[in-house]
Please model this.
Amino acid sequence: MKKVLIFGSTGSIGENALRLLRKQSKTFEVLGLCANRNVSALYRQVKEFRPKYVCVGDEKKAGELYKRIGKKAVIFSGPAGLREFSSIKSDISLMAISGICCLEPLLINIKHTSRIALANKESVVTAGNMVFKEAFKHNTEILPVDSEINALFQILGHGKAANESTADIRSVYLTASGGALAGYRRNQLDKVSVGKVLAHPNWRMGKRITIDSATLINKGFEVAETRYFFNLEYEQIKVVIHKESLVHALVEYEDGSTQACLYPPDMKIPISFALFYPERFKSSEFSVFKKEISCNFRPLKTNEYPLFDVVIEAAKKEDNALVVLNACDEVVIDNFLEKKIKFLDMEKIIKSIMRNCPRSRVKTFKDVLYWDNWSRLKTKERLDRL
Amino acid sequence: MKKVLIFGSTGSIGENALRLLRKQSKTFEVLGLCANRNVSALYRQVKEFRPKYVCVGDEKKAGELYKRIGKKAVIFSGPAGLREFSSIKSDISLMAISGICCLEPLLINIKHTSRIALANKESVVTAGNMVFKEAFKHNTEILPVDSEINALFQILGHGKAANESTADIRSVYLTASGGALAGYRRNQLDKVSVGKVLAHPNWRMGKRITIDSATLINKGFEVAETRYFFNLEYEQIKVVIHKESLVHALVEYEDGSTQACLYPPDMKIPISFALFYPERFKSSEFSVFKKEISCNFRPLKTNEYPLFDVVIEAAKKEDNALVVLNACDEVVIDNFLEKKIKFLDMEKIIKSIMRNCPRSRVKTFKDVLYWDNWSRLKTKERLDRL
Model:
């Protein structure tokens, strides 16, 4: 019986994971569930899965849950509670908390689990070296849930992920649909509504990642993830526009042979892969060949998505730049979602913050927090001047 | 230094292999070259690669070669000479003799080499069980050169090829361009010229395989090859029409994840894979992403290529049927190439031979020879009655 902790159980990744585990009670035990504030969803999950441990990020909301479940589970709450919850021993932990808040529980939990199924992108983008060093030290395997990185893992397997020779790999290609605004001209982008940006053609995801898909910041982050997961050089990691979102990544070897991993755009597939690996979840729900299919690919052009280029430039510095960019991006997206700024303002502000960002090495969790805070502060100042 | 024997060195596979080995004299020694009757090409190869052993299938032609190279190499000739040549100890043997004549040297050579790079299709189609049993017995690895099977091997690796569990594989898909006559209507097929059939849109190959590509007999044979190479059930092996010939095969797992192997349609890639494995031949010549690409796939329909269905029906019997079909096909193709019969006559005759073929198990090389002869005889009788 594999004991599973789910961090971020009420989000879309968490809910999908529970949908998969529902019929697997003979092989998986849901040991703990953790959510930030959606107590009614959490209550429903607790009733169904009867975990021993529950964690509520928002302290005020914890009381509400306690009233409903009493002592049927140990309830942790607030930042200290989350740290305690992260120290529970498990076989697999699904890390699906969104944003930088995932980094601390991840760094703690790496010491107490055998496998991290990692859905959070920000932790690798901001602290990739730290995360993989800890994982190596504690012999914890990290399996990527993010579909592109998961696709690469399916092709390359643990071998490459565990720092084996990547000498025979010429390039890897991450695919990008181009997001909801593919084909928009610059002058159209300026006036684009929040609703339009949130209407991703192929994937149903959280709001931030959907907006990051429209600016291609998300793809830039995935390039950085790829570097850390597979120990590749930035020059080897390329992006191709593939509007159908069927192929998620490709690996091109030195002889010109190329392997692609494709599946219908549904997160249940990479989630199940990370949970069941090396087995496969048997499901007839998905097949790419249910109908005729067409897959088109073209190289991404320089300056086609200016913020993608900004991310890559920051990533190559391998210092505090991605921490700053990530935090700034989160703040401007919040402001865009609240309709306080326009779509292209996000780009303007991110570029301005990155221009004025002092360079500094990031070695510890505290360093990450420092530059994350610095960036949020500077971005808010910059927003006030708009 | 790896010692290499090349069976069929003057054919297109053999020539391509030598092109690859030309610059690899530090790691590969061309130990022996074998051709059927193209002595002038063989002489050129001998002069360049200076093999210790040479074999000429056609005894009369052997004298010609002897006059030109004298005692610079040991020359074998005729069927007995080929058997002797096949007993030479090597590290890798490329089996690129075309047709059923490859089976005997293959069965002999399996005992004397560490690796067979197998380009010949007929030997697996007619005697798959025998070939893989011998390979297992002598611990000889067989690497497929045929592009679709090679693509599957690139995805599945030795694990599956060596009879490991295939439980997590839902289906494999072989791609078919549809051949030179894709889109032709039945009444157009009746009058089609030899030239048209030989004009394959994507691949430059020998005449027989090009015609087998137009009828899709070739794809049926590959389905049988796939069964023997990867120990899959016929129900798991599917064919999709993919006119671009970039993707050669795909593997769909139980969770719906699918892996594809793609490369430009040039046999140098699968040949180099089979020779250099597990290393990769470093060449910037090939890349699928040199330009925008489009890949389209649609399932093959029943009766779309009637001869494909005939091959599958024969293959599923797992008896003498594929031996008979293979020989009959070779004879009718010769007759079509000589313009003695029309395109659709091939189908008519193959169907008639298969209808009247008595069932018999094939256990030994002699059994294969018997049914091969039987089929050639019956096909010639049938042709005479046309």
Residues 365-384 of chain A form the longest helix (20 residues). The two ends of chain A are 55 Å apart (CA to CA). Chain A has a mean pLDDT of 94.
